[in-house]
Amino acid sequence: MRHGKKVNHLGRKSAHRKALLRNLTIALITHKRINTTLAKAKALRKYAEPLITKSKTNDTHNRRTVFSYLQNKDAVNELFSTVAEKVGDRPGGYLRVIKTGFRLGDGAETAMIELVDFNEVYNKDGAKSSGKTRRSRRRRGGTKSSNTEQKTAGTAAAAAAATTPAPPADAPASGEEE
């Protein structure tokens, strides 16, 4: 039985699992977003986030440690330059896993895993530029507030303005002669 064991073996021997996670991490660092199964995405998050944390301090020891995990110079350079620059002030949670449905061939649950700071749609900066957020709360009690009275008065004035006929477009203005 595997009670209390936190590592998802992903149906592979240890060497195969390490190679899989290494290749997924390299692909994630180079492309910033990849599609895979949900189980692999969750295992990848536990594997890659400590490496991203190490990349925040650019020294020889951390570079060698990350290289021992990845074995790819281009990915290490990308991680320590571009990725570390974006995640420098973030205290953790560098990756986001979004479920994308089920695969047609075998029914496996698929997911997209991406670096949080490289998605312009979901970041806080994108939400701020879209405008202010609208909040509403339920009132307690049955009394009407002055805001609802103002709204009803405003709608009555708008209804009265809508019932008055507008002059035809080709008619001359009242102050002008023909």
Helix fraction, binned, reads 40-55%
> Which word captures the global form?
extended
Tally of helical segments: 6
Radius of gyration: 29 Å
Distance between the termini: 98 Å
The ordered H/E elements are HEHHHEEHH
What's the story with the biggest beta sheet?
Answer: 3 strands, antiparallel
What's the β-strand tally? 3
Strand order of the largest sheet: 1-3-2
Determine the structural class based on helices, strands and strand pairing.
mainly alpha
Report the mean per-residue pLDDT as an integer: 83
Question: Which residue ranges are poorly predicted, with pLDDT under 50 across at least 5 consecutive positions?
Answer: 127-131
What oligomeric state is this?
single chain
Proportion of residues in β-strands: 5-15%
What does this molecule look like?
With 178 residues, the protein is mainly alpha-helical. It contains 6 helices and 3 strands; from the N terminus they run αβαααββαα. Helix 1 packs across helix 4 and helix 3 packs across helix 4. The longest helix is centred in the first third of the chain and has 18 residues. The protein starts with 13 loop residues before the first helix and ends in a 15-residue tail after the last helix.
Properties at a glance:
single chain; 178 residues; mainly alpha; 3-stranded antiparallel sheet; 6 helices; 48% helix; 11% strand
